[in-house]
Design brief:
Structural class: alpha/beta
CATH class of the largest domain: Alpha Beta
Shape: elongated
Distance between the termini: 57 Å
Helix content: 25-40%
Order of helices and strands: HHHEEHEHEHEEEEHEHEEEHEHEEE
Largest sheet: 8 strands, mixed
CATH superfamily of the largest domain: Periplasmic binding protein-like II
Number of domains: 3
Number of helices: 10
CATH topology of the largest domain: D-Maltodextrin-Binding Protein, domain 2
């Protein structure tokens, strides 16, 4: 049904005359007559009768009028829902208990006028496909070389490098240490039952472990964060990794310890991922907020995987386009494209259902 024809019908009813409706709609009286005639032909009934006093509703017109008004209201809501700046910005944070959700909360505090639709997608492939297809506006992910290439319509930029802590019970050999180095962890058993082969967080810890001779034990089952904390609290040999800003709560009796890892500090790299043709103004605001807050990665004293260093070496080139200010990646530079591999959660970012220590 033609929205403009229905709008014209309601305008004639409200004005009482075709001439007045034409003025209200900024069209000619002939255009009004043609629209009403087309609507009546489509419905197969007469809606209006014209006489010396103007336009009067027929009995069919009276029956149609309330539905016509509801139709126009629904059409306006549908248009508003996709009008730039009116639709809520939909962002995937992997899990609501993660530091990434905290990043988005910080953005909301800075921009309370922007409506957000927060979703959690566990695996990276699903999240990137959702960005590509326009199901979500953005996602936070750690990007890895092994696996599928990112679609060319998807762009990324680093937004948060999260330091890791060693997490132990009170009886562990490092429980009272102010800090530990990766070299001190060589040969030590780090229990991470949520590390699944082929996932990006597994790729991160595999490279970290290989670099420093750390033993990452992923033997499960993975029952979630609470059972993991229970096990770590009671062990003198098991430890795990947690991120600096991931909030955790445990019983007082557990006396668990979070110990910074330094010299170098391992950083788990988070990037924002979005579609190059997404012109939602709130997405531009989110990107500005995150990139402004991101201090950049230190040149020394930290450790990141090789694939993260590749990401850093291929920065976004901010070509400000008319009205949308989107950034495009300069693909003329040499070097491989960034990729994803499997489900995207890090120990720095425990999953909503699976827990990586």
């Amino acid at each position: 049904m033609d929205v403009m024809a229905v709008r014209t019908f309601v305008a004639v009813v409200d004005a009482g005359q075709f001439q007045e409706a034409a003025v209200d709609l900024s069209v000619t009286p002939q255009a009004v007559s043609k629209r009403i005639a087309a609507l009546e032909k489509e419905l197969g009934v007469r809606l209006l009768r014209r006489d010396a006093r103007g336009a009067r509703l027929t009995i069919d017109g009276q029956a149609f009028l309330p539905h016509a008004r509801a139709f126009l209201q629904a059409a306006e809501r549908a248009i508003t829902s996709v009008r730039p700046g009116h639709r809520a910005l939909r962002v995937d944070v992997i899990g609501r208990r993660l530091s990434l959700a905290g990043l988005l909360r910080d953005f909301h505090r800075a921009h309370p006028e922007i409506e957000l639709d927060v979703v959690t997608l566990f695996d990276s492939d699903t999240a990137v496909a959702a960005v590509r297809d326009g199901t979500i506006d953005a996602t936070f992910r750690a990007l890895t070389m092994p696996g599928l290439q990112l679609p060319r319509v998807v762009e990324t930029t680093p937004v948060f490098d999260e330091p890791l802590h060693l997490f132990t019970g009170p009886g562990h050999e490092f429980a009272n240490a102010r800090a530990v180095t990766p070299a001190q962890l060589a040969g030590r058993r780090i229990w991470m039952p949520g590390n699944l082969p082929g996932t990006e967080w597994s790729a991160y810890y595999d490279e970290f472990a290989a670099t420093y001779g750390i033993v990452v034990d992923s033997v499960g089952p993975d029952f979630g964060i609470e059972p993991l904390l229970d096990t770590i609290a009671g062990s003198t040999t098991l430890a795990t990794f947690v991120s600096e800003q991931t909030p955790l709560v445990w019983p007082v009796g557990h006396d668990l310890r979070r110990i910074p890892v330094t010299d170098p500090t391992p950083l788990y790299p988070h990037s924002l991922v979005w579609h190059v043709d997404n012109h939602h103004p709130s997405l531009a605001a989110l990107r500005r907020h995150l990139t402004t807050a991101y201090p950049g990665r230190p040149d020394g004293g930290v450790w990141v995987p090789e694939w993260s260093r590749s990401e850093r070496s291929a920065p976004l080139v901010n070509r400000q386009t008319e009205g949308d200010g989107r950034a495009e990646r300069d693909r003329s530079a040499g070097g491989p494209r960034l990729t994803t591999s499997g489900r995207a959660v890090s120990a720095a970012s425990p999953a909503p259902e699976r827990t990586r220590a």
